[in-house]
Amino acid sequence: MRMLNKLLAGGAVLATVTALTAGPALADPPHGVNPAPGSVVSAGANTQEYLSDALSAGWDSKNPKKTQIYSWDALDPAGVDNNIAFKQGCAKFLRPNGASPAITALSTDAGGTTKGHPCLDFARSSRAPKSTDPTNLSFVAFALDSVSYASLADGSNAPHDLTSKDLQEIYTCSVTNWDKFKGGKNAPIRPLLAQSGAGTVTFFLNAIGVTTPGPCVNEPATLEENEGVNPIFKGKDAADEIIPYSDGLWVAQEYHSAKCLNSSCTPVKDVVCKPKGSQNKYGCDLNGVLGLNNINGTSPLKGKALNLPASAAKGGYTDAFVRSLYDVVRGTKTVPKYLDQFLGAKGWYCANPTLIKDYGFLPATVKGFPACGSITAG
Prior knowledge:
Blueprint: H1 2-9, E1 40-44, H2 49-62, E2 69-71, E3 83-84, E4 93-94, H3 99-107, E5 113-114, E6 117-118, E7 122-125, E8 137-152, E9 161-162, H4 164-171, E10 190-191, H5 199-207, E11 241-246, H6 247-256, E12 258-259, E13 284-285, E14 290-292, E15 294-295, E16 301-302, E17 305-306, E18 322-330, H7 340-343, H8 353-358, E19 362-363, E20 375-377
Parallel strand pairs: 1-2, 1-7, 9-15, 10-11, 12-13
Antiparallel strand pairs: 3-4, 5-6, 7-18, 8-11, 8-14, 8-18, 8-19, 8-20, 16-17
């Protein structure tokens, strides 16, 4: 899993790692499968990668004689090599770890073409279009998520409810001690952000009105978004830390995914977790020691699901922290014809609301947000 990648990148004691066997809880194209030139391939945001894995596998199983669709994770699930060829005949490329790198890869035709087909067909994005994005791309909505801040579920010095303004002051470093906020303890604030290019980071900073994080914000290169099993959360400063977190992915991992076989979520005989019964086939529970918190007095969760519709006045979560998840395609205000069967309003992604819920998100049917299959130009 990705925690393994981060341990390797950080110089952990594991000297060699054998590839994980194909099976439950893994992702990328199935073991031994090299996507054909005419297949459809996605890469990008880690937030919805497990849902994308499940949608891809479901289509391929149901339609073995039609165009096959494959999803590449943000990082190598086996922790071996993040230089990949998206399809047969494509040049190797550093796999995009996050929404922004994938959007760039899509717009620049990373990997080239193979037998007249693009090597990367669409990018997963957990953020909305930015003014700096290429204008020749369209963002296609398909699900809803929300973002909160996570801290230690037990023993955190941070309050369990902060306002948008509080978070802005924290991430600009204008306030540096938790006791300045109601419910906080006398301890230094240690705000964290995950890897550069992560859609969750971009969305969160925009929601709290921060363009440039302050000097107290720690952005470790080995910290992946939406994972609470990184060693940083067990270090001496763990009780002082907070980090943006996808509420939907937290729900999926907490209530629908199998627990890791050990606390570090590293493989045991090439297995990270063993899904059973109705548990999600893709993705293990990487929430680790982290729990979600409230923003502006509103909870991101209602029971074991997201607290939507997005209206605090109606008992829902604070609107500014609710987001659409997108698939990004080439073209302006259009879904390429060959991708419509997957991403269009009547396509495979929109036709699987139950699977979307199993992976922690909600179908894009909430008033005020783009409907599934609707297009926003980049």
